[in-house]
Amino acid sequence: MTSLGDKGSVQTQTKVLSQGCWTQVSCLCCVSERVEPLVLIQLPDSVQPVTKRWLISLIEASKRHGGAALLAQPGEDECGNVIVVSAPRCTLLRATEDLGLCKKYRNEEMASFSYHDRDNFTNVDDMQEFLTLAERQYIVKIELDSLQAQKKQRIPGVPDALGVLEAWENICQKLVRAGVIKDIFPLHNQQRLNDVCRRWYSKKQIWRQPLDAIQSYFGGTVAFYFSFLQFYTWALVPPAFLGLVLTFLVPGGGGVVKEQAVEGVMEEDDDGPSVSGHMVQAVFSMLWSTLFIEFWKRRSSSLSHRWGTRHLTERFAEPRPGFHGTLGLNPVTGRLEPLFPEWQRQLRVGLVSLPLVGLFLGLVVLGMTGFYHGEALVQGFHQDSGSLFSGALLYLPSIAHTVYTTILKNVYHAVAMQLTKWENHREESSFQNHHITKVLLFTFFNNFAVLFHIAFYKQDLPLLRKKLASLLILNQLVNQCTEVVVPFIVDHFLSAPHKKEQEDDLEVDKLRAQRSLPPFPGLFAEYIELLVKFGYLSLFSCVYPLTAVLLLLNNVTEIPGDAYKICKLFRKPFSAPVSNMGVWQTAFEVLGFVSVMSNCWLLLLSPRVQEFCLEGGISGKNIILVAILVEHVLILVKMILAFMIPAEPDWVRIKREQIEFNSMQALRQQDVTSFIPKHSLA
Amino acid sequence: MTSLGDKGSVQTQTKVLSQGCWTQVSCLCCVSERVEPLVLIQLPDSVQPVTKRWLISLIEASKRHGGAALLAQPGEDECGNVIVVSAPRCTLLRATEDLGLCKKYRNEEMASFSYHDRDNFTNVDDMQEFLTLAERQYIVKIELDSLQAQKKQRIPGVPDALGVLEAWENICQKLVRAGVIKDIFPLHNQQRLNDVCRRWYSKKQIWRQPLDAIQSYFGGTVAFYFSFLQFYTWALVPPAFLGLVLTFLVPGGGGVVKEQAVEGVMEEDDDGPSVSGHMVQAVFSMLWSTLFIEFWKRRSSSLSHRWGTRHLTERFAEPRPGFHGTLGLNPVTGRLEPLFPEWQRQLRVGLVSLPLVGLFLGLVVLGMTGFYHGEALVQGFHQDSGSLFSGALLYLPSIAHTVYTTILKNVYHAVAMQLTKWENHREESSFQNHHITKVLLFTFFNNFAVLFHIAFYKQDLPLLRKKLASLLILNQLVNQCTEVVVPFIVDHFLSAPHKKEQEDDLEVDKLRAQRSLPPFPGLFAEYIELLVKFGYLSLFSCVYPLTAVLLLLNNVTEIPGDAYKICKLFRKPFSAPVSNMGVWQTAFEVLGFVSVMSNCWLLLLSPRVQEFCLEGGISGKNIILVAILVEHVLILVKMILAFMIPAEPDWVRIKREQIEFNSMQALRQQDVTSFIPKHSLA
């Protein structure tokens, strides 16, 4: 028998749930004093009680009977439009093993959790200590997601046209399509949230965020984002310092500037750095970006060891809900599940997705070319006629380009999602990575097309410098507004009555407040912002050395802004345990390599460097050849550096090897036959 | 009791070993009808019987007593200067587990061998079926190599100055230094050897060598070399075909040639391909080299699965004999062994080895520059004076350069070996890879410096073409002589009397014949020859399209030549089980990337391409920029292609994942405590 207590860390939500409402647990070890509400399933107001009862019975049924082996509670009453879901101990522990999470063993080391050996893990009796809130909620989500119809059946209370489940159909997806489930989201735990907030953004903990608490409350993806953000902010200190020194302390080669001014070539812009400053900045930037990424990899691997996510076994788990294929026995695990050949996916990625993405990138370039072409045309026309009409026409190319870009972007986003679905990835992480890569490429291209055009086609460095500075400062201001000022206003003025109301009505169902919040939009926008700014810094740093200073300022305001957003302005997101930043890390790494090329090119274009070379007796053609040589050598140096710095600290490597050694030993001491799928034994 | 039979596959060597001479086995399961002589330890003639007895007792002692748990036999008599060594079943099986070899399980799948579960593996009772000859011999070698003095002791019969073993000192290395062991080498099995020969080179099986038999008799490294050679030969067919077509069937742009001849620029060399031929050749060569390496990776992984070497556990085994460090508990395996921190090795590689190798490469360049400089000087002097003395002086630069190169090469080889030893690699494979990389870089540089000089500094394509053709054809002829004609003569004429003698004296100790053969020089020379020729093909292919045809011819003669050499002209080498070609594969891969750069450059230099561009209205500076762009795009395409083609076939991936899944399951079903080193349990 489970019952709801009204004390402890279980929050106000629980108070509205009358005692004994929770479904019963099936095994003795799962009986607990109090049940913690983890996830809320939002139904439409029109839902039939019979459908709701069916769904609750499905949630509580054991896995053997095709259920999710969770605990459900019908909210205020049988007719309400919510189901609150929790998970019993056994389900949580089994799912922990399936996920491959590492937990603290009794010798204080991290070990892959084993249900068989569960009693040797610390805190295994207190689920709220053993698993983090984010993990418990994620487990509920995957259990719900993995609900499958065991045979063809009807959904009670739903019209026949929508309500027929085929055998092995995913139930949650079907219910969402049929309109029975409006939403599934994890519930905030107000006390813990306040605790995290207090330690995090209220005290402006920018340089030392409570990462473990963030990981525990919001989960792996969010914690990795903030860890990276903090690491990045620290890493920006040296280039910012160098930028300040180069801009304000180094004389700036005034002699050269005057000389140029006399020649009448460059008088309009003489605040660029000197030749040696250029060189120092470019080489430093190259080294810095390599070290940054390599040390982040080390940091990332120790974080993932600390959070027990180094040995996730997603590829051995059940496929993600959207995965489809011919039903068959998985050759590795021997489970019955949809199968889809790897080579077919590779072909789809290579022969369809890749060219299509290329096509869209081409369309971006086409749009930009069209814009410049149109602008030149209109300007010529205006100069010729000078009428009011032609003056108005001047705005046309800009408007047309904006409309074109917006349409293109929306079409691309739809296409990217459809393509990724069609590629039919088995694992959620693989799906995410492919989707993010597609959107990322396009967004990045869209952001940088203008800058690249100025740098490499127009070859106009002063314009590039101005554009870069204005982008950075404008972006900074907009950012400040949207991420710091607006939330501050919302928090301190607009939401004040709401807050008061909350304090008054402790008894009222607070779930409503959470339901009214918009869903968390994901970290894509945050990451792409970081990446684009990292691009400004690494790709064009030798043009505008103050970039790093502006970025540092930006990050310092970004951290509390983002923290406030995720804590207060949105619903709590589901967050999978992850072992790294996934494709974002690769994106930063690739940018590091591209930056070598772009910096070499910018140096080559720099009039002062050209002058310097000409004085040294190197002809125009040979300068290019020298630049190519330097580029190749720098890339080689970068690769050697990356190879030299191990991607994980020694102590993490040793722990990993210990686990590998142990599993090898374990395999040897067992009768191998016991694991071989029966069908493959002759 | 073990005894020697005089029938079965055990060869003539056994006949000279009188019955009952073998040391006794300690456990019942190891008793066998006949003992197969595997390895011969050659002692000096002056060896004391007491030393020999001590060594034999050490070899036969159990591991618990600091022995090697092998079988030994004193040869003809107690005073003879050889010890013949074999291995009992238990030692072989335990070592198979330690190596991590996969063997056939009773369900016909390959599974990591487990001593605990040994009875479920097929052929486990017949060591000659279960393990290959090369594996048995390698196991004897590692057991001998791992002999360690358990306490400080004296070697009986050896003067005190040399004969004191420190505690934990490696015994074999000490005995070699003290002159007690002259040599250790594996014995040929004449019947099996004849069998392999018959199926291999006698029938000129160039296109389909008996790879399994080679792997079984000569071991992994040798088998991988020949597998690669065969794969490479097949892969050369398409480029050879294209080369023939481009050379003889495509008109060759005669109009352009004439035009150039009229201009008086290029009349001396008009047999180069046309612009489109150039382009086709360059792009084809780029694609081909990528596909070649990617498909070889797939082939390599399926071979290593077939040969059971996909899950070698070298890093968990004992360190290689030359490894030193402070004695301590290995944190992973919990064994007492020398420890040496990874970061220190990385530092040594990065801060000492890398700059030193760079220095030597610089010296090569310096030598070449000096040579060209000296030659110009001497030629000028000769033209001025025209005396006999100055005529003789003309040879001086050549001679000086040859002497310089030879000295440099010898110094470098010594330095490379010392550096690699000093880097103190724990695993033999890591030692080999680092050593090979060093020598490889130097040899490659030495071979290509002249060609690069001609291509990139002199920018003289006709000279490059001539040089390339002469190198290839000369090399071909020399190769034919040394690898086919000479062995043929040796085999059919010179060794005839020797053979006759062998046939007469079946009873005589045939070990002597094997002792008289020179030791196998290793595969370095063979691999580097392949690599250099692959370099000719991929780096400069667009200059001389017939390269592939010549290489194909070369390989067709190389295979039987190499096969003959290894079968007849040398002692049998020890050959470790390996899962791939190691660093050689990387070398071929890197060359593929370098080839993109060099081909782009060569196209850029090609006078016809330049003319073609000028006609198209592209200026000299822009041609270079286009070339850079093309280079970067081609490298991107190469990387995408390499990413798209999985490095292992689907079926191999599934098998690998099965094993990983099983070992994860095994670990979960065991009490983790049993594997945690006791010292780390609180």
Short description:
Two copies of one chain form a homodimer. By secondary structure, chain A is mainly alpha-helical. Chain A is 61% helix and 5% strand.
Please specify the SSE layout and strand pairing.
The structure is a homodimer of 682-residue chains.
Chain A: H1 12-16, E1 39-42, H2 49-60, E2 71-73, E3 82-86, H3 89-99, E4 102-104, E5 110-112, H4 127-130, H5 133-145, E6 153-154, E7 164-165, H6 171-177, E8 183-186, H7 190-202, H8 211-218, H9 220-235, H10 237-249, H11 254-263, H12 275-306, E9 326-329, E10 336-339, H13 342-385, H14 388-393, H15 396-423, H16 428-458, H17 461-494, H18 496-504, H19 511-516, H20 524-540, H21 547-569, H22 583-605, H23 607-615, H24 620-644, H25 650-668
Antiparallel strand pairs in A: 1-3, 1-8, 2-3, 4-5, 6-7, 9-10
Helix pairs in contact in A: 7-21, 8-9, 9-12, 9-21, 10-12, 10-21, 12-22, 12-24, 13-15, 13-16, 15-16, 16-20, 16-22, 17-21, 20-21, 20-22, 22-24
Description:
Chains A, B: Its main location: membrane. Chains A, B: One of its GO terms (molecular function) is chloride channel activity. The structure is a homodimer of 682-residue chains. With 682 residues, chain A is mainly α. Chain A contains 25 helices and 10 strands. Chain A has helices at residues 12-16, 49-60, 89-99, 127-130, 133-145, 171-177, 190-202, 211-218, 220-235, 237-249, 254-263, 275-306, 342-385, 388-393, 396-423, 428-458, 461-494, 496-504, 511-516, 524-540, 547-569, 583-605, 607-615, 620-644, 650-668; strands at residues 39-42, 71-73, 82-86, 102-104, 110-112, 153-154, 164-165, 183-186, 326-329, 336-339. In chain A, strands 2-3-1-8 form a 4-stranded antiparallel beta sheet. In chain A, a hairpin with a 6-residue loop joins strand 9 (326-329) and strand 10 (336-339). In chain A, helix 16 (428-458) packs parallel to helix 22 (583-605). The longest helix of chain A has 44 residues, at 342-385. Chain A is globular, with a radius of gyration of 29 Å. Chain A starts with 11 loop residues before the first helix and ends in a 14-residue tail after the last helix. The model of chain A is unreliable at 1-20, 253-271, 496-508 and 677-682 (pLDDT under 50). At the A-B interface, helix 13, helix 24 and helix 25 of A face helix 13, helix 24 and helix 25 of B.
